[in-house]
Amino acid sequence: MEKEKLIQMLNRDLADEHAAIIRYMTHSYLEGEDTSIGASLLSRAREEMWHMHWLGMIIGKLGGEPNMTPAPYPHDPTNRATIFQSYIDYEKKLVPHYEEEADMVDDPHIRRVLFRESWESDYHALKFKKILDKLSSDEASGLPGEENELSEALVERIQQSVTAKYRQMLQSIRDAWVFQSKGEPAWQRMDFSMTKMKQLAHSAEEIAENGMTPRLTTGRIILAGSLSEAISNGLEDVRKTIEIHEGLAADSEAKEHGGLMTNLDLTLRQEKYESDELRDRLSKSGA
Ligand SMILES: [Fe+2]
Ligand SMILES: [Fe+2]
């Protein structure tokens, strides 16, 4: 298969895996991570993250630009039963899809990845079927989500954090995939991407716990041509979220939510660590 065609094909898969992550993660937060349905969904979301990551690494290694915009995830949002049925249908379609793709590729690693994404999708369908079969009639006809207890202004502030952090997380993982041949500094982009996922989870959960959908919009991914440019943009990015989070930490309504404040405190300390590391790295490389 021609390289450009292969990159295009893998980029479409990347967008589908990305869509599945967002769908299962958002749904998990709406159910509550500590519920059995929520925990299972989060587990699936993590496996979709592997899937996305393997594809991203292959695309980066091939010299391609990863497509960081998620595809739509078609689902019937009427109630839990229709939602889980949509998930089963989605995963089942991926089984022959990935098998067919694997058969078109010669590279043994890429073939193995595509086959694994096929059979893991089959397991996902099976696990969602088990949830669907176990739903009580109230659960089946109901929808996840609690009542909102936050003011509109505070919701907006937290949503700003969600959107900014999600973009930064995608940006750093893109940089890690694209610059993987640079070794350790690229690994650090990956490391920060993982911290950002956790920080994103804190704010996205806060929104979903209040029955709203976290605003996971991709924003503009910067296609930095060099790793030092990517690191320098990363430093600018983290500066922006420090500002958002300092604002949130000083918000009088936010201060009434103990859990939110603890997570904000942790996030701010991690962000300062990140900016110190990046600044240091830039001054040493003379970039
Ligand atoms: Fe997947
Ligand atoms: Fe899946």
Outline the structure in words.
The protein has about 290 residues and is mainly alpha-helical. The protein has two domains: about 5-140, Up-down Bundle (Ferritin), CATH 1.20.1260; about 150-285, Ferritin, core subunit, four-helix bundle (Ferritin, Up-down Bundle). It is about 75% helix and about 0% strand. The chain is built from nine helices and no strands. The chain has helices at about 5-30, 35-60, 80-105, 110-135, 135-140, 150-180, 185-210, 225-250, 260-285. Helix 3 (about 80-105) runs antiparallel to helix 4. The longest helix has 29 residues, at about 5-30. It is flat. The two termini are about 40 Å apart. The model has no long low-confidence stretch (mean pLDDT about 95). The structure holds fe (ii) ion (2 copies). One fe (ii) ion (FE2) binds near residues 20, 48, 91, 121 and 124.
Radius of gyration: 20 Å
Assign the CATH superfamily of the largest domain. Answer: Ferritin, core subunit, four-helix bundle
Mean pLDDT: 95
CATH topology term of the largest domain: Ferritin
Class of secondary structure makeup: mainly alpha
Hetero compounds: fe (ii) ion
The domain count comes to 2
Give the class-level CATH name of the largest domain. Answer: Mainly Alpha
The proportion of residues in beta strands is under 5%
* Reported CATH architecture of the largest domain: Up-down Bundle
Broad shape? flat
